[in-house]
Amino acid sequence: MRLYLINPLNPTVSLSRVKENRFNKYRIWKPLGLMIIARITPPEWDVTIIDENVRVPDYDSLPRPDLVGLTAFTSQASRAYLLASMFRGKGVPVAMGGIHATMRLAEATENVNAVVTGEAEDAWPEVLDDLASGRLSQVYNGGLVDIERVPPARHDLLSTGYAFGSIQTTRGCPLDCSFCSVTAFNGNRFRWRPIRQVVDEFKLIKENLVLIVDDNLIGTSRKHIARAKELFRAMIDAKIGKRWMCQVTTNMGEDEELVRLAAQAGCFGALIGFESPSNDGLMEINKKYNMRKGQDARSSCRTMQRHGIGVSASFIMGLDVDKPGIGKQIVDRALSCGVDSLNVTMMTPFPGTRLWDTMESQGRIAANSFPEDWKYYTLGFPVANYMHLSWRELLDEWISCLRSFYSYPRILGRFLGAVLRTRKVFANFGLLVTNLIYRRNIKLDQQIHSSFDVSRGIAHGARELGRRDGTKRDLLLDSTSEMRVDISAQSREPTDVSEL
Prior knowledge:
alpha/beta, 17 helices
């Protein structure tokens, strides 16, 4: 029995263009969910994982599979359905899981033979049993699994093409931000894998660099922090010898012991969701945690940097409170905190979020020719109607923001500042490379988005589109329209890998 597990490509994302920018290999993460599904699959199955972000094979030249399993974030759904159509046309059944299929169940069932909703570990064996008996169902409900029973991923199946390995230690998030579907998909409480299991799986990873894909590695409460410290101590004692990145909240730098242990355990970088430079923006998206009294973001960043942990700040542009000038506000906030890199995304309503429900009820979802338009839901396209910014204005703000932060003088200044702070040159080379990757990918996204016809928004009820642009020609992105898309916390969908 032959099984293909496929992670679909989204050609509108610049990070997949490794040939144009070889450093993009540092921004491609292994599809950990498929690697876990491969571990659960019985040994009588010959399992192949295909990650189209690394290479798109000639499927016609491959042996015919008995089953195809697809995973997809929303931005991958269009490609996933094309692959499903191709294989089903050959008589091969297709199963699909992941956040998008869960949140758009009716759509998914129209395009594949079987859909696994929620976390797939418990449901996958049933899918295989039903396939063998010829009674495959349309829907299998995975729900929330007992994370303590989740086995280690098959890290051996994807041995080349990646700079980073990947691992997961927790699922769920208590913050419940309006733009994020983590709570809807994984629940609003932390579920922890046993520390010994995490340490043992770390040893299975061949890569020296690792991404911990948890949506929030350290959590927010004292109990969460205590568990994180316990994990870091176990990693130190085990002498894992890996360097890793993670996603955390602004509280990490407020605990010196936590930061010191993380650094000793191998942490060299953390993505922090600042989200908005204003309290009004934070209130709008329900990120009240970032408004805690007494917090000092600059001091927290400095604490992390002093221990050799680089800080990447993530902001959202296009909130209802955002007006012309928001790009400069974001840059000013990032510079005042002294962060090492800046990730700016566009407010994107994902299915399953409260933001989607609100914008859909208000008729503000403009890129709505589904499923084709899902490929634009990368956080790098203006897919909705924004309150105070036309699409062109939002793009201009985005461009000016990134150009300002990633100017060559500021890139050099950040690198030299880190060298002076740590007295180490080579150790800070990654910071320089990261900044240059961001800058280079602005030009790559210019190519990708040059044919994106924003004038379609008018037909979809985009009242703000063209508010100051008088002609259709002005409504089309030309060669000055540059965008950058990031994959990490990036997706504002869960980076949880329990999905198929």
